[in-house]
């Protein structure tokens, strides 16, 4: 279910993406691993601003669309891998804007949120840490990055990895653990201006995906001094704030990549109807036609899962379990869709003649990003056990 307001916005976004953004898919302005350069990103955003579709999920008065309304809009923005970048609905900016809007003080909103909503800056979320040895990896409770109060500044030290968009970002949200319980203890979050000489980019590896500017960097944070009034929310509440951000952010990923898979399926369907082999169109061969039929089923199931989870989040519930279920179900369904599209198109499907091969790569990465499928299943299994014990009165 959605609203007329959301459908009207989504229609404008779809027209913009199909008419203006899709031609940019062949633009050569890319970095070393194929991600669009900021020059191209901001050029597209200027056009989105003129078309009235920049940051469409945040209204003129600063209010957000509901999660269900957001789904209607973000799915359309995802019809091209470049669409979310052009419309300013892409991760990590979309999730960072959401978190700042929910938790940030007016001072932080004026200082940092405004430049993100305007689309004139990119941001990065510094949470994940290297998984070498006993490093945190996907387990933020093992976080080793520390922060300590020194006068009216916090001093942060540590290492982070897979920090999407760190290279070229202007705003950062850094998560660290307070060393002294008397200083608030637990995890804290801070807003920082970037670049900062205390945050050194060590490596930006080539990865299977290539849709996000700046790649996924490993960084060293060495004696980063942050004014005390740039702490996001309260000391020790960082894990809670992370869930405020991550639950809807996982769902937003589902929305955007569903849009990409809808487009990939359109391309594969067109190919199967135009291409002939063994005396008839490919679509008339059961092996091909059935794959496209299965795609329609998976697309509809993904839409329903997204709508259900969005409805839970709209009730005000944190929805951690629901977003985990949606992330697993949708990412796995989208992987099947993308894989079938490649298979239907044969040799053409593995070339860069269309976006199908890129969608396949992006969705494969999505099964890991924002928590691998197995981590979410493990979390859900723990909930099953807790709920069973509660039912037994244990």
Automatic annotation (TrEMBL):
Record keywords, A-Z: FAD, Flavoprotein, Oxidoreductase
GO molecular function: acyl-CoA dehydrogenase activity; flavin adenine dinucleotide binding
Domain of life according to the entry: Bacteria
Domain Acyl-CoA dehydrogenase/oxidase C-terminal: start-end pairs: 236-383
Coiled-coil segments: none
Gene3D superfamilies for this protein: Acyl-CoA dehydrogenase/oxidase, N-terminal domain, Butyryl-CoA Dehydrogenase, subunit A, domain 2, Butyryl-CoA Dehydrogenase, subunit A, domain 3
Ranges for domain Acyl-CoA oxidase/dehydrogenase middle: 124-206
Cofactor annotation: FAD
Record-level GO cellular component terms: cytoplasm
Any Gene Ontology biological process: fatty acid beta-oxidation using acyl-CoA dehydrogenase
InterPro entries in the cross-refs: Acyl-CoA_dehydrogenase, Acyl-CoA_Oxase/DH_mid-dom, Acyl-CoA_Oxase/DH_mid-dom_sf, AcylCo_DH-like_C, AcylCo_DH/oxidase_C, AcylCoA_DH/ox_N_sf, AcylCoA_DH/oxidase_NM_dom_sf
Family per similarity comment: Belongs to the acyl-CoA dehydrogenase family.
UniProt-recorded name of the protein: Acyl-CoA dehydrogenase
């Amino acid at each position: 279910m959605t609203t007329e307001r959301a459908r009207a916005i989504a229609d404008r976004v779809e027209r913009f993406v199909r008419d203006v953004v899709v031609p940019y898919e062949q633009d050569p302005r890319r970095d070393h691993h194929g991600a669009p350069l900021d020059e191209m990103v901001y050029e597209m955003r200027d056009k989105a601003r003129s078309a009235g579709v920049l940051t469409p999920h945040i209204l003129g008065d600063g209010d957000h669309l509901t999660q269900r309304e957001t789904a209607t809009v973000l799915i359309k923005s995802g019809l091209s891998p470049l669409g979310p970048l052009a419309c300013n609905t892409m991760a990590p900016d979309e999730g960072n804007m959401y978190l700042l809007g929910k938790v940030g003080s007016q001072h932080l909103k004026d200082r940092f949120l405004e430049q993100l909503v305007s689309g004139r800056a990119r941001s990065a979320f510094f949470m994940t840490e290297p998984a070498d040895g006993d490093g945190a990896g996907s387990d933020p409770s093992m976080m080793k990055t520390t922060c300590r109060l020194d006068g009216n500044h916090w001093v942060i030290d540590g290492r982070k990895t897979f920090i999407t968009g760190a290279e070229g970002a202007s705003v950062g949200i850094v998560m660290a653990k307070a060393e002294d319980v008397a200083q608030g203890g637990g995890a804290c979050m801070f807003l920082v201006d970037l670049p900062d000489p205390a945050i050194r980019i060590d490596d930006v590896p080539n990865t299977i995906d290539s849709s996000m500017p700046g790649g996924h960097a490993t960084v060293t944070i060495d004696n980063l001094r942050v004014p005390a009034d740039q702490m996001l929310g309260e000391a020790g509440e960082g894990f809670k704030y992370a869930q405020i951000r991550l639950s809807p952010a996982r769902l937003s990923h589902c929305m955007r990549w569903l849009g990409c898979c809808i487009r990939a399926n359109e391309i594969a369907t067109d190919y199967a109807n135009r291409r002939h082999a063994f005396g008839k169109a490919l679509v008339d061969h059961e092996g091909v036609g059935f794959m496209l039929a299965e795609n329609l089923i998976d697309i509809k199931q993904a839409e329903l899962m997204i709508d259900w989870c969005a409805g839970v989040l709209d009730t005000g519930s944190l929805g951690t379990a629901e977003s985990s279920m949606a992330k697993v179900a949708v990412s796995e369904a989208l992987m099947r869709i993308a894989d079938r599209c490649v298979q239907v198109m044969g040799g053409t499907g593995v070339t860069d003649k269309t976006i199908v091969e890129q969608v396949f790569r992006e969705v494969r990465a999505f099964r890991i990003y924002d928590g691998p499928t197995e981590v979410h299943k493990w979390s859900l299994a723990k909930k099953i056990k807790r709920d069973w014990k509660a039912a037994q009165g244990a």
